[in-house]
Amino acid sequence: MKPKLLIFLLFPLIGFSQQNNPKAPDSLKISNVFNLGEVIITNHQNKDTLNRITSKAMESQNKMEVSKALNMLPGVSLTASGPRNESMVSVRGFDLRQVPVYMDGIPVYVPYDGYVDLARFTTFDLAAVDVSKGFSSVLYGPNSLGGAINLVSRKPSKKLEFDGSLGMINENGYRGNVNIGSNLGKFYVQGGFSYLDRNSYRMSSNFIPTANENGGQRDNSYRTDQKISFKVGWTPTEKSEYAIGYINQQGEKGNPVYTGNDPLNTLLLKPRYWQWPNWDKESFYFISNSAFDDKNSFKTRLYFDRFKNTLDSYDDATYSTQTKPYAFESIYNDYTFGGNLEYNTKIIPKNDLKIAFHFKEDVHRENNLGEPVRHFIDNTVLIGIEDVYKVSSKFTVIPGVSYNIRKNNEAEDYNSTTKVISDYPDAGASDAFNAQVGFFYQLNNQQKLGATVSQKTRFATIKDRYSYRMGTAIPNPDLKPEKAINYELNYTANLFEKITFQTALFYSSLSDAILSVSNVEPGKSQMQNFGEADYKGVEAQLNYAVLENLSLNLNYTYIERKNITNPNIHFTDVPNTKVMGTLEYSPIKILRLIANAEFNSPRFSTSYGARVPDYTLLNLYGSGKISKNFSLDAGVNNIFDRNYSLVEGYPEEGRNFFVTLRFFSFN
């Protein structure tokens, strides 16, 4: 879609918005959460700035990707898979295989490897993003070893609501989106469209050119992402609700080549020339909550999720021919279907009891162009119970248990020499037991204390068990689940009516960790249940209303990860220290200025010790209302043009700016 067509689609809504109430955007950030899509243990999460990001916070600093929005939270680190140009996060040291991603409580991670490229998930139509760390509800389902991430969509609260934007990103990118909703009492409808396109991103002027990258505009760093979302709901009674939703994401991206200097990295002499012509996801879902009476209800989530992906490997940097042995076209055509049923009863005094059943079937189909399709099918089942026991008005205990089982129903091997497909031997079923308990005490109106312990597991993915990793690995279908016991002590205080302070101490003990073991055969590795490890750290956040028009937010994370099994193998991608500060100033009601600074300590990029140095970024943002229904946002990221990397050999963007025109309209 071209910029002119995008503007044409949005222009009628902009014109209509001039007739409506200008104060609605502030209320939108509070009242637009689709509560049916939340998965929360207690009712305090909507006030928890340690673990939730609202649409208002995301918009204020122009966080267009879920990964960059999550990076605003303590305990969360922005990470990347440089060789695949994927944007990810780590939560208290756990990666996205161990902290699965959900949309309105429905799993959206990729069936094959359990990951998801969070740069493909834009924030334009979200109401909030919730993060559960360690102690996450068993109602999420299996594999939440280190927590869970839930993207919560919008729900309209007025008869007619609009908001949207048009914007420019540097000189070669643009964005646009529109959200429209209507709530007619018992019926509501919500829809959204967004488009994000960039030809490339500009590297720092401090970057030193290499053989594979001359600087300036980063080669092969283009991206295009389009998303359509739609939801219709019915609320026959105050406590019953039924919603049908649809999401269609279409993306494509380039994959910048390795430009580092690590002599042990094979990409130094053999760079990858990759492009992803499509990274497409389509989801259909039904969510309901039926209240039988004041004490009993039944919640349902049913879903079908389709993932199509193509990766093209080319001969060279012209990206025009595929004749060399390492060139290929890889095709994934996956789907997942499943659901969960949840019965909630308050019939026992002081108890809020939930019993849940989950079923999920993952189907992975892959082939290179010209080869037959290989099939892999996993079935996963969970039965769980969770209770919120109000011991007193101040003391709450929350226990939870679940039993998980995963069965592989089909796994096919392919011999590229004989061109024959055969079945892997039946590996049988794998099961795991999870249990957790949390204690929460309200010390007084201003202070509360919590302590939690949880034993969680993660099943090995299809890729963990069956991938040859381009001829460098040996499959291991018999991998067991990895396990973690997570401990946390947390404290929240509201002081002097101006300060909110939240902090958490955490410790995780991992066993049967799934790690890549080198040279199982000469030159070949294998994923094995090999490791034991400890993660420990602290996170804290301070919100201070300095003046009526001046506020300060500070957050801090410190984490240590120790590989007990083999201390010489380093854990990668996560800095020991992350500090972020945001100062927001509104000299007049129609103007808001924000200064943001972020520090990250050095981090390992490889298990053998290659590192990237620490970095500090400074960003400035401004937003001003230019009429009743329009505001103009502008900002500069990485003001000092720092040349920095999240992964060695893959430099991040240098100084960059954006300008965005926002419009809003509600009745």
Automatic annotation (TrEMBL):
Enumerate the UniProt keywords alphabetically: Cell outer membrane, Membrane, Receptor, Signal, TonB box, Transmembrane, Transmembrane beta strand, Transport
Q: Molecular function (GO) terms listed?
A: siderophore uptake transmembrane transporter activity
Recorded superkingdom: Bacteria
Q: Where is the TonB-dependent receptor-like beta-barrel domain?
A: 259-639
Supply the name of the protein: Iron complex outermembrane recepter protein
Specify the protein's topology with respect to the membrane. Answer: Multi-pass membrane protein
Could you tell me which species this protein originates from? Flavobacterium nitrogenifigens
GO CC annotation terms, alphabetical:
cell outer membrane
